[in-house]
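Quick look at the format.
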Amino acid sequence: MTYPSTVIKGHGTGNDFVLYLDEAGKYEPDEEEIRFLCNRHFGIGADGLIRLTKPEFVSDLDDEAVTDLYNAGALWFMDYRNADGSLAEMCGNGTRVTAALAIRYGLATVTKDEPFMLGTRAGVKVLTRLGQVEGLGKDVFTIDMGPWKMGEQGEFLVSIPGAEGSCRGTFVDMGNPHVVSVVKEPVEFAFDGYGMSMSIEINDMPDIEELDLTRTPVVEPVLSAGQNAEFVRIDSIDTHADAGYATMRVNERGAGETLSCGTGLCAAGVVLRARTGINNWTITVPGGTLTVSVLPDRVYLTGDARLVAQVKLWS
């Protein structure tokens, strides 16, 4: 087998992973092994697998990419795979749990003065450790998620198979693809000077708690690489404090519905900022609460990370 006999189980606000350290590059798993380890009935169970290793031991990175990572200060790489075995460009919650793993093995201290430079397929991510933060958790990390790109607002039509209603979705690139839909917004009407309707924004998707995200949402037009589909509801905003509060659920590409999605939270923050002008968001997901701060050129994500068990695998 191409994974070690002992692995770690961890999660970031309920987005859970099987993790292990591979210092010598001996344990790059294949798709079948990943599906086994992440299987919740026959394996350990997880939304994805994380191998913490050196950049040169990641088979899909070429020499130039490896050199670029080292030049940027990333001595370690988060080799992340979805539960179905497919490669993933990034995982925001996974980076925090990976940082916790690096601390456990003495590879990094991850303080404000000594941030952890972690290589990913979406570039180098910079993490700092805050410790206990009220409302967020006992071992909280902030990650600079880097730049974001947003498409035209409402460009996509999003629906859920077998369910009534649909809403408009907006594409956001966080190093991996997302389509974010804001639910429970009023239908917007626009009129010309003669009282005639010029445009109508249709949004009759059920509320967040009523969505059946065990079914993969349908996004039209189709994105060839697939996407994570986020559904977010604005709960309140405080324009004077530049603060907003929202609730989100997500169906992740290659994993199905998860309790949290770090890149998805950032994508939601980008869309909410475009909708409201509010830059700082506290977002509740089924697995907990995190904060997202959106700047013109980057996004910061802050949330908890936990290592919960060491698991000995039997052959």
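Next, a different chain entirely:
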Amino acid sequence: MDNGKVLVSLVLENSPAARSGIKLGAEIVSWDGMTGAEAFERTSWSENGTATDEGKRFNQGRFMVRAPIGKEVQVEYRNWGSSETERTKLTAYDDQFETLKKTKNKLTPADLEASPIEGEMLDNGYGYVKIKHFLPKSNVASPEKKLADLLRMFKAKNAKGLIIDLRDNPGGEDQLAANLAGFFVNKEKIYEYVSYYNRYTGKFELNRNEVIKVKPSKPYYDGKVAILINSRTGSSGEGMPLVLKGMPNVKIVGFTSTAGSFGLVSSPIEIKMPEGYVIHFPDGRSLNQDKTVQGDADASGVGGAVPDIQIPLNEATFKESVMEGQDVELKYATGAMER
């Protein structure tokens, strides 16, 4: 959604929308008797909770076009580059959740069996590291060793800087995230203190035995670093950008902040709802070095690791990223290190 415009980012082949003439990048002028913006704003449901306003809006875009099977919707739209408004009627059909699957990243068994870290030298002279998750596996090489080897290679090849890609990283173990962050610090830092909710006192209390620290590791990388994030960078995936943010050689880059879901769970808080539904809340909070809650979004929907360089989501970047398939975030990350 850009300045009140709702642009189509996904059209499945042979779907009713594709057959009707709606194309990728089309502007939805009206939807089911409302303007496109009104239809977008009234959409609130998601298959999982969202902590930030940015995460909520991402899911509004995913669910705006879903409806009970058989429901008919009148649509007015303008295809990209056209000034003509066209009208059509769409009928909801059973797509076996394909539109949701294509807009929700999920680790595959192959992802979990392979090393969570991949890297290469880019043609532009920058090092690139993709960290898919922070879930250690006993049958693959140590993630710490993999990253150390890549950093040695980048130094040997005089890389101009390093891009760490944490987009869509769902998290895993905080200790592993702290260990990997250790290659980018030259003195010990607090990754997190932890406090848990005490059901007897009704207060959160610090667990002094649970402190995670970022300890310097070799090889130490002190070059320019750009960390790529998005609204699907969650849990301990948010740890590295949170702990490295503010360092003079590090820039956080993305369209949005991270997911803002940095809470911890030991014995979840349970609330029973009508009709047998049960809601579970994390009972732990991650605290920064000042023992203030970090990472989790607040009541206004603001939270997570916030980009130092926030890429504008407008028609130009929509066209580049969605329609032309360019990696806009990677381009901005490179630009950040060339300044």
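The first helix runs from residue 16 to 20.

See the schema section for token definitions.
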